[in-house]
Structure formats: structure tokens, C-alpha cells
Design a protein that fits this description.
Number of helices: 14
Strand content: 15-25%
Bound molecules: 5'-deoxyadenosine, iron/sulfur cluster
Function: Catalyzes the methylthiolation of N6-(dimethylallyl)adenosine (i(6)A), leading to the formation of 2-methylthio-N6-(dimethylallyl)adenosine (ms(2)i(6)A) at position 37 in tRNAs that read codons beginning with uridine.
Shape: globular
Protein name: tRNA-2-methylthio-N(6)-dimethylallyladenosine synthase
Structural class: alpha/beta
Domain Radical SAM core: 137-369
Domain TRAM: 372-434
Distance between the termini: 51 Å
Domain MTTase N-terminal: 2-118
Largest sheet: 6 strands, parallel
């Protein structure tokens, strides 16, 4: 029995691609190995969120190199965004790598493993969706469904259009069929994935489809009780999508709406194609239709040219919106992007750090305040397992995407009602409602 080991870096899209890699390897008869040194195929699914390969990745790769020295027949593969951004240079930098492939090129890995090629190969052209490959889900009741690849935006800081290419939507019926298959296997929650999910469907022929139509179709799938998606772009956040949250029972009360900056001047330099006013207008529309909706965001601090005044506008938007949580990033130039070429107005590192600290303070304070609205409510929680900090308690997720730690009887994959007693900026704590379990709600 041959064995594989996969290490994943980066975003959910990469996690999902790794599940496909594992599923594909298992369908070829491979089994998971707990450690790299026990594996016949050692894979890395990489991210280019940093300009240079991060030290964790380099350390892992060094280890794989030692394994290969001891057992030369071991196959070492590097996939994902970082591999894509370097292409064949991967082999020049790391001669012990046998196969390199871009994001989503999982089927190429299969081709390589099943051929009797002895020479190193790189695969970087997009050819099709991995959606039809089997996957190996890390959680039995949650599934990721890729609905598009690539991105047609031109954000000046972002490497994604280079690594993941032009936007292509997956056929509508294929997405719905995959959700039906997942439901038949016991999945209750799906997350629709794409670099810009709400631009979905415009490129489909003969007939265009919309993202809102897709939400309706997935909501109608029997057995799927929660639908999430990531990431949308504020410019494509149309009223029909917001209304889907208000009217479709399975579409969760959570929207991730990347802000990036609160300053219209910086947004323009970032080529985000919306300004502060339009962004806040989207937020107002969400609050109007789905008053209780959780809002989360991504923010970049220290973009070239960002003044104290610009940064203050980011803080103002955070105060005003009151995000339920936010991913905050310090700007870092990525090879080949427009922003990496800017030489004027660069923000010194200590200033970036100081702004980041102030931003995190506002984000956390507002998240903490916002979370108090849940205290005293009885909320639906999808049980994931035991609590990470206290094994006598359970852990799950609310529809608002909050982690909930609680005492109760639920099994993984079960939807239970939990009475919320306490809330921090990050998590909720409570007790399963026994009345609800007994059928009294
Ligand atoms: N520097 C810092 N943050 C970045 N992001 C994307 N590119 C960069 C960059 N060059 C952040 C954005 C995006 C998130 C996934 O990563 O906030 O939404
Ligand atoms: Fe994901 Fe972007 Fe990292 Fe690629 S570069 S893995 S798309 S976060």
C-alpha cells in the first residue's frame, strides 16, 4: 500500500484543493501517512500571500529533501499559488521536486502519478474544474463547492489574477448536482467558493446565470440546511443576493464583505472600483433587509500612500459598521503586481505596525460589543466536535459563523439549539436547550 502526506498553506480554496488531492490519491489506492517520512508521495499545497516562500514551508521542504535523500523513489510535489507564480523556476530552486502544478490542477497530479514518467514535470495551464474529482472531507457534514476559478478584477495589490487566471464559472447544473451528491452523503452545510463568487455566471453560455439564482437552486437542495460563500466583492453585492439572505432559509445570516480600506483615495489606488460611500451603502442595504446579519471583512493596513488621515477613515468605517470579525493584513508587495512597483509614499514598517495595533483594538472592541446581542438568545448550532479547550464541552458554529462552546448532548453533524450565556469578540458560550431537544421550542 502506497502512502501520501499533504501539507497545506493559505486560504480555504487551498484547503479545498487539498481535500481533492487526498480524495484523488485515495481513489488511486494511496493511504494517508501520519508523517512525511512514512510517505511515498509528499505534497505541498502552497500560498503566495507572502512574497518569499515562508519559513515554515522552507523548513518542511528541507525535511522532504532529506526523506528523498534516504529514499530516492519518494515523489515530491509542490502545488498551489506559490508554485504557479514561479512556474518552472520551482525545479531550478528545488531540484529534488518531481512535480509542480498550479492551483486546482489536481487532475494533473493524477496524470503524473499514473504515467511512468521519470522526469520532473510542471503543469500550470487551467484545463477544467476539479469538481468532478472525489474529495476527502475533513468534516463529514460540511462541504466546499467550487463555483468559479480565477478573477477578472484588477486590484493593484493582488497576485490572484496571475496565479489563478481569468474568471471562469462552473456550469450551473454541475454545481447543483455536486450539492445534491454532498447532501446524499450527509453534508448539511456547503460553502460556495470562488475568488469573486458573486460575479458568478456572467460568462456562462448559452445563457448567463446569476449568483442569486445559484443561491436559490442550492437552497432548494433537500438536506442542505446551511449555505455560505466566500469571497464576494462589494461591487457585485447586488440587492438580489442580499434578499437571498433574507428569504432563503438555508442561506446563513453572515456576509463577508472585504473593505480593504475606508479611504476612497486609497480604494482608487487599489483599483477596487467602489468608494467609501458605495461600500457603506451596501452595508446599509444589508442591514435593511437582514438586520441581524453578521458582517466580516478583510482590511489592508499601510498600502503605499496611506496617510494618517486615510487610515483614520478605515478606523471610522470599522467603528460605524461594527464588524463581527475582521482579517487584518499589513500590506506586503507581491511580485508582478502593480502596487509592488509603487516607490512613493511607502509606509514605514513601524507605522504599519502601530496602525495595525490601533485597527485591531477597534475591530475587537466593536466585535465584542456586537457579540453581546447574542447573549440570552437560543441559537441554532451545527455541532462540529468537542471544545478545543475543554473536552467535556462541545463546539459548533452558529449561522452567524460564530464558534459556540457549550455543554450538551449533540453529536457531530447535528443541529442543536443552544442558550447563549456569554460572548467574547471571538466565541459564544452556552448550554444546549433541553426543551428544544425534547421538542418544545
Ligand atoms: N498585502 C497585504 N494583504 C493582501 N491581501 C491580498 N493581497 C495583499 C497584499 N499584497 C489580503 C486582502 C485580501 C486577503 C485575502 O488578503 O485583504 O482580501
Ligand atoms: Fe489563497 Fe491567495 Fe494564498 Fe492563493 S495566494 S492560496 S488564492 S490566499
Amino acid at each position: 500500500m502506497k502512502r501520501y502526506h499533504v501539507t497545506t498553506f493559505g486560504c480555504q480554496m487551498n484547503e479545498h484543493d487539498s481535500e481533492r488531492m487526498k480524495g484523488m490519491l485515495e481513489s488511486l489506492g494511496y493511504q494517508a501517512a501520519a508523517e512525511q517520512q512514512e510517505a511515498d508521495v509528499i505534497l505541498f499545497n502552497t500560498c503566495s500571500i507572502r512574497e518569499t516562500a515562508d519559513s515554515r514551508f522552507v523548513a518542511h521542504l528541507g525535511h522532504a529533501k532529506r526523506v528523498k535523500r534516504e529514499r530516492p523513489e519518494t515523489i515530491i510535489g509542490v502545488g498551489g499559488c506559490w508554485a504557479q507564480s514561479l512556474k518552472d523556476e520551482v525545479f531550478a530552486q528545488f531540484p529534488f521536486v518531481d512535480v509542480a502544478f498550479g492551483p486546482g490542477q489536481v487532475h494533473k497530479l493524477a496524470e503524473f502519478l499514473t504515467s511512468d514518467s521519470l522526469t520532473a514535470q510542471g503543469f500550470f495551464e487551467f484545463e477544467g474544474f476539479a469538481g468532478d474529482l472525489p474529495d476527502k472531507r475533513t468534516r463529514d457534514h460540511q462541504g466546499w463547492v467550487q463555483i468559479s476559478v480565477g478573477c477578472n478584477c484588477n486590484c493593484s495589490y493582488c497576485i490572484v489574477p496571475q496565479t489563478r487566471g481569468r474568471e471562469a464559472s462552473r456550469p450551473f447544473d454541475g454545481v447543483v448536482a455536486e450539492c445534491e451528491r454532498l447532501a446524499s452523503e450527509g453534508v448539511r452545510e456547503v460553502t460556495l467558493l470562488g475568488q469573486n463568487v458573486n460575479a458568478y455566471g456572467r460568462d456562462l453560455r448559452p445563457a448567463k446565470r446569476t449568483f442569486a439564482e445559484l443561491l436559490h437552486a442550492v437552497d432548494a437542495v433537500d438536506g442542505i440546511e446551511r449555505v455560505r460563500y466566500t469571497s464576494p466583492h462589494p461591487k457585485d453585492m447586488k440587492e438580489d443576493v442580499i434578499l437571498a439572505h433574507a428569504t432563503l432559509p438555508s442561506v446563513c445570516e453572515h456576509i463577508h464583505l472585504p473593505l480593504q480600506s475606508g479611504s476612497s483615495r486609497i480604494l482608487k489606488a487599489m483599483k477596487r472600483t467602489y468608494n467609501q460611500e458605495r461600500y457603506l451603502d451596501r452595508v446599509a442595504l444589508i442591514r435593511e433587509h437582514v438586520p441581524d446579519c453578521a458582517l466580516t471583512t478583510d482590511i489592508i493596513v499601510g498600502f503605499p500612500g496611506e496617510t494618517e488621515e486615510d487610515f483614520q477613515m478605515t478606523l471610522d468605517v470599522c467603528e460605524q459598521v461594527g464588524y463581527d470579525s475582521a482579517f487584518t493584513f499589513v500590506f506586503s508587495p507581491r511580485r508582478g503586481t502593480e502596487a509592488a512597483l509603487i516607490t512613493e509614499g511607502l509606509v514605514p514598517h513601524p507605522v504599519k505596525v502601530e496602525r495595525m495595533e490601533r485597527l485591531v483594538e477597534v475591530v475587537q472592541r466593536r466585535a465584542h460589543e456586537r457579540a453581546q446581542r447574542f447573549v440570552g438568545r437560543t441559537m441554532e448550532v451545527l455541532v462540529e466536535g468537542t471544545s478545543r479547550t475543554d473536552p467535556s464541552r462541545l463546539r459548533g458554529r452558529s449561522r452567524h459563523n460564530k464558534t459556540v462552546n457549550f455543554t450538551g448532548f449533540g453529536q457531530p453533524g447535528e443541529l442543536v439549539m443552544v442558550e447563549i450565556e456569554r460572548a467574547t469578540s471571538q466565541t459564544l458560550a452556552g448550554e444546549e436547550s433541553l426543551l428544544a431537544r425534547a421538542g418544545v421550542r
